[in-house]
């Protein structure tokens, strides 16, 4: 079946142009002649054929300038007016499709095909063309990339001289000659004239990509049958499907006060609207609608319809809110859901999931769940709301191993089952209390006694049960009890009882380095020998534990070596009664002394190397009752020297 399109009046074209989208050039091949002189002075040299019986052709501005002519077509082949733009093929190559009935005119074809360089979908195709030797009738067929073709469309075009409603005019024409002078024709009558054939593909084909256009010359307007058709270029309006967005206003329960407002884009403008309402509404917004389903048919300027559907629901005058307190819970705990109406009362409620019909109830979902609440008011209208209860998994209690450490040292506690993204809080209380630290590890303060810490895993709002972990300091060995045993003038034997669990002992004499006892590593005695001129001897004994931090504290003891026959009193009474009136060392083995006495301020108040002793005076004056200190170096008969230091009480 043929579609007939008569391009004889620009009224149709103008109506389309008033609302149409832009026509943009489409690159095509399939031109069979060069009908435009573009350069030089030899029209025959730069063209292949004349376009009418008199061999008239078009020429460019550049050709006009070279030959002193007026007018001409654009040098770049770009024709533009309003929203229309056409691009001719290169003037140095074939640039027109030249046609006649059955191709009977020299250099013409009866059927030609313009092939798209890039196939595309178009809502409108425009062919830039004219006829010579009166009008021409053509049959136009679109060939699609899917292998289908359109029904042939019949269109007529007018002669390039004198036709009505051209798209472009007043370009002038000349005879195709090898040299000038050239005579420009038609300028005074605004000729020659160029027209357009505007064709909208069938609605069902507009989304298909056009691969080519086949043009068949059907009939000549001249009785002689010598009319020709000349096609210069192709432009098109890209196909954009109609899309619709909507804004729905609900109807109040039992009333016709809903509305649907749509915004349509795409298609060929102008768009028209038709709603399935009674009466039919024809604007973008349908009003005064009761609840129901509605369809709007949007039809573009090409007559292509698109249907859009929307639903209007009834809206109660009562507001209904679904609430959950709390909205975030931990697994295994409860929350309570509430239906809260505002502006009236509901006669029934339904909660899903669960098909619960109470206005409030307690739930303990295992996973995050959205509860849908449907309320029915006194008019039977439904109001819907929903609330999401977020369920966070309660973490498992952390696993932490107890530790034994050296006393007064720190411990690093580590969670064995630490999981990302859980966080961990450490406490000193089984519940409550301040957070002492955070993280999968925790370094304790120094620990001197058994201490317990508590740790919980935290996942968002959820905390696990607290795990107790105890840090126990190692026990020290019992401090040895040291006693001075055998004491002689030259040595002392120190002993101590065995300490349970001790692995050995070490000793330090008079603050010296620790050494192994003289009785051996595990012995319980140590002999200090070779003592000369020493008033006392001190010793420290440490019982060794399995590790160093289990060593005992030092056991202490001291002893004074026996001075032989030497006696130094610790008090004397210089009162002249003949008893204990002098302070001096006594002993049968003493052969000489060097003795000094100091008062409480450390002043030397007496010195002698005689064995008579001090009588309690200084510079002839009696010294007061009090404590004085002394130092005495004693030489024994065997030439041994002893030094003794101490204090003496002067009593009166």
Descriptive account of the structure:
Keywords: Signal. This is Gliding motility-associated C-terminal domain-containing protein. InterPro entries: Ig-like_fold, Ig_7, SprB_repeat, T9SS_type_B. It comes from Chitinophaga filiformis. Residues 1-20 form the signal peptide. The longest helix is centred in the first third of the chain and has 10 residues, at 10-19. 3% of the residues lie in helices and 46% in strands. A hairpin with a 4-residue loop joins strand 52 (626-636) and strand 53. The chain has 652 residues and is mainly β. A six-stranded mixed sheet has the order 1-12-11-16-9-3, with no helix packed on it. Strands 2, 8, 10, 13, 15 and 17 form a six-stranded antiparallel sheet that branches. The N and C termini lie far apart (157 Å).
What is the overall shape? Answer: elongated
Helix content: under 10%
In angstroms, what is the radius of gyration? 61 Å
The percentage of residues in β strands lies in over 45%
Q: Report the uncertain regions.
A: 1-20
- Helix vs. strand class: mainly beta
Please tally the helical runs, counting DSSP H or I stretches of 4 or more residues: 2
What labels describe this entry?
6-stranded antiparallel beta sheet, 6-stranded mixed beta sheet, 652 residues, mainly beta
Give me a quick take on this structure.
The protein is mostly beta strands. It contains two helices and 53 strands. The strands form 15 sheets. A six-stranded mixed beta sheet has the order 1-12-11-16-9-3, with no helix packed on it. Strands 2, 8, 10, 13, 15 and 17 form a six-stranded antiparallel beta sheet that branches.
């Amino acid at each position: 079946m043929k579609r007939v399109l008569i391009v004889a009046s620009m009224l149709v074209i103008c109506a389309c142009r008033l609302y149409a989208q832009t026509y943009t050039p489409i690159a095509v091949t399939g031109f069979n002649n060069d009908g435009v002189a573009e350069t030089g002075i030899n029209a025959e040299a730069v063209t292949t054929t004349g376009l009418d019986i008199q061999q008239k052709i078009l020429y460019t501005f550049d050709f006009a300038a070279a030959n002193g002519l007026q007018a001409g077509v654009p040098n770049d082949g770009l024709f533009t007016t309003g929203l229309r733009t056409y691009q001719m093929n290169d003037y140095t190559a074939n640039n027109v499709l030249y046609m006649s009935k059955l191709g009977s005119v020299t250099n013409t074809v009866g059927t030609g095909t313009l092939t798209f360089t890039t196939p595309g979908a178009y809502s409108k195709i425009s062919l830039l063309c004219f006829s010579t030797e009166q009008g021409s009738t053509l049959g136009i067929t679109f060939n699609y990339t899917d292998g289908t073709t359109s029904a042939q469309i019949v269109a007529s075009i007018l002669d390039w001289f004198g036709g009505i409603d051209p798209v472009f005019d007043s370009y002038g024409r000349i005879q195709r000659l090898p040299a000038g002078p050239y005579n420009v024709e038609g300028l005074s009558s605004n000729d020659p004239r160029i027209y357009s054939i505007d064709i909208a593909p069938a609605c069902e084909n507009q989304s298909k990509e056009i691969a080519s256009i086949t043009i068949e010359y059907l009939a000549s307007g001249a009785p002689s049958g010598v009319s020709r058709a000349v096609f210069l270029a192709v432009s098109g309006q890209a196909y954009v499907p109609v899309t619709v967005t909507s804004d729905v206003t609900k109807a109040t329960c039992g009333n016709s006060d809903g509305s649907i407002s749509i915004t349509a884009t795409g298609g060929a403008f102008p768009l028209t609207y038709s709603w399935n309402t009674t009466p039919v509404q024809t604007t973008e917004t349908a009003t005064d609608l009761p609840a129901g389903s509605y369809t709007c048919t949007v039809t573009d300027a090409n007559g292509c319809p698109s249907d859009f559907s929307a639903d209007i629901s009834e809206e109660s005058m009562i507001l209904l809110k679904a609430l959950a307190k709390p909205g975030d819970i931990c697994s295994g705990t409860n929350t309570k859901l509430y239906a809260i109406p505002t502006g009236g009362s509901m006669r029934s409620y339904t909660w899903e999931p669960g098909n619960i019909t109470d206005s409030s109830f307690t739930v303990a979902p295992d996973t995050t769940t959205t509860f849908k609440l449907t309320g029915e008011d006194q008019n039977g209208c439904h109001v819907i709301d929903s609330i999401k209860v977020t369920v966070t998994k309660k973490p498992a209690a952390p696993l932490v191993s107890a530790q034994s450490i050296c006393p007064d040292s720190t411990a690093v506690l580590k969670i064995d089952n630490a999981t990302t993204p859980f966080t961990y809080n450490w406490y000193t209380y089984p519940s409550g209390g301040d957070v002492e630290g955070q993280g999968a590890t925790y370094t304790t303060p120094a620990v001197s006694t058994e201490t317990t810490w508590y740790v919980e895993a935290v996942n968002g709002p959820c905390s696990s049960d607290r795990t107790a972990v105890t840090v126990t300091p190692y026990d020290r060995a019992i401090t040895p009890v040291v006693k001075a045993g055998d004491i002689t003038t030259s040595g002392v034997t120190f002993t101590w009882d065995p300490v349970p669990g001790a692995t050995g002992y070490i000793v330090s004499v008079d603050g010296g380095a620790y050494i192994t006892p003289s009785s051996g590593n595990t012995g319980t005695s140590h002999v200090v020998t070779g003592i000369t001129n020493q008033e006392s001897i001190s010793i420290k004994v440490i019982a060794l534990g399995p590790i160093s931090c289990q060593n005992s504290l030092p056991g202490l003891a001291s002893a004074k070596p026996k001075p032989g026959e030497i006696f130094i009193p610790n008090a004397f009474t210089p009162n002249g009664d003949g008893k204990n009136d002098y302070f001096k060392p006594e002993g049968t083995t003493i052969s000489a002394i060097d003795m000094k006495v100091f008062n409480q301020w450390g002043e030397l108040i007496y010195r002698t190397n005689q064995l008579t002793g001090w009588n309690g005076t200084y510079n002839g004056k009696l010294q007061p009752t009090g404590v004085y200190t002394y130092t005495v170096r004693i030489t024994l008969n065997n030439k041994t020297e002893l030094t003794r230091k101490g204090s003496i009480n002067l009593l009166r």
